[in-house]
Amino acid sequence: MRLHEYQAKDVFADAGVPTPPSALATTVDEAVEHAEEIGYPVAVKAQVHVGGRGKAGGIKLVENAEEAREAADAILGMDLKGYHVDKVLVEGAVDFKNELYVGITMDRGEGKPVAMVSTQGGVNIEEVAAENPEAIAREHIDPAFGMHPYQARKAVYDAGVPKAVARDVASVLTTLYDLWENNDASDAEINPLMITEDDEVIAADAVLNVDDDALFRHPDLAEMEDEAAEDALEAKANEYGFDYVRLDGNVGIIGNGAGLVMTTLDLVDYYGGKPANFLDIGGGAKAERVVNALDMVFSDDNVDAVVFNIFGGITRGDEVAKGINEALGQFDEIPKPVVVRLAGTNAEEGREILNDELVTVEETLEGAVQRTVEYAEDEQ
Ligand code: GDP
Ligand code: MN
Questions:
Q1: Alpha helix locations (H) across 46-204?
Q2: Domain 96-222 maps to which CATH number in 3.20.20.140, 3.40.50.150, 3.30.470.20, 3.40.630.30?
Q3: Angstrom distance (rounded) from CA 149 to CA 174
Q4: Ordered alpha helix ranges (H), 80-141
Q5: Is 105 flagged in the annotation as binding?
Q6: Is the pLDDT score of 343 beyond 60?
Q7: Which CATH architecture has domain 21-92?
Q8: Cα of 53 to ligand 1 centre, how many Å?
Q9: Same fold, 21-92 and 230-379
Q10: Annotation-wise, does 14 bind a ligand?
Q11: Cα 122 to ligand 1 centre (Å)
């Protein structure tokens, strides 16, 4: 479970991490009121379960009431990477000279938590991680002992954090580790951890992801789960009884069986495409489920092409094919190209039944995925 920034900030502040004054708003008027109270400049920040809000236009710095009104009006109700924004955090802006990154996550390879510190925090940390990984200092932690103060100091020193703030950053890092552990978090992250002109250290953003399987131990956190902010598509998937995960690419993927869908995802990636979703329609892929599955992927504006990967077992290939025809027959115009790979029981019959005016039929999975990735590129 991912907490919103404002929720994570509350948890961080309670644990002793310095955070700017802030207040949550769901209307423009409310946002302006908060801004007036906090005093300008303030940052108006979309509260959605997705990173990279700054780059996507979900964060605006404003200097007066008029600007605050404009910003809140623009951000509230906007669609941010597929998420509807219904709340903004109004927060005292920090006058900073440097943005750090600090985070705790589980290093599965090592089987240990790892603390990370970088002086190159801010909106480009993903690029830093990919292109310049040595700019992020790492320190593994033995969970039996927790983070020793010297480990925090070492990570901070290795990262090259300026001396004047080293002690405070180390203290934030140990606090972050403790709250990571106490909350059964999978990730706890502050990016940016800002250094002000006066060498104060302050968390301008907060990420806290909590292990779903441990939520029963944290009723306070479980209560924060925000049904309204749940992705509209994920809600739809729940209704239909599908296993669905929304991703940020443009190749829609539908399959029956989790393994089959995972394989398709990997292949899309292998052939240079980007999966838009994981969608497992389960064993009994009857016509109605196919209709619902198509409704799901076509409801995602990011999808440029769709690949079906179906293995006929309990549900025979001919039945799936009928479902696909029926589903696509409901559209006056098929919104995006659809490619189908059918294998297993009655696959051949199925392929014959498929209406090739509506779909592209491919014999092999590799062929189907390559074709879909091409279509998706053409549509862009
Ligand atoms: P994210 O893009 O979703 O991770 O959102 P962040 O909260 O990290 O904000 C992105 C960027 O906006 C930060 O790296 C800062 O450069 C800028 N920003 C956010 N809050 C403030 C603030 O209070 N003051 C200033 N000056 N910049 C801010
Ligand atoms: Mn951030």
A1: 65-75, 125-131, 149-159, 163-182
A2: 3.30.470.20
A3: 7
A4: 125-131
A5: no
A6: yes
A7: 2-Layer Sandwich (3.30)
A8: 9
A9: no
A10: no
A11: 7
Tens-place pLDDT, residues 103-142:
999 999 999 999 999 999 998 888 998 999 999 999 999 9
pLDDT value of position 30: 97
Write out the two tokens for 50.
Answer: 């997705």
Write down the domain spans for the chain: 21-92, 96-222, 230-379
Cα 32 to Cα 25: distance, rounded to the nearest angstrom: 9
Class of domain 230-379: alpha beta
Asked if pLDDT for residue 196 goes beyond 80, the answer is yes
Pairing between strand 185-196 and 136-140?
unpaired
- 38-58: per-residue pLDDT in tens? 999 999 999 998 888 999 999
Residue 312 has pLDDT above 60, yes or no: yes
Least confident of 51-65, 115-129, 196-210, 217-231: 217-231
Who lines ligand 1 at CB under 6 A? 43, 45, 51-54, 59, 61, 91, 93-94, 96, 99, 122-123, 191-192, 204-205
Q: Is the pTM of this model over 0.85?
A: no
Question: Is 318 in contact with 350 (CB distance < 8 Å)?
Answer: yes
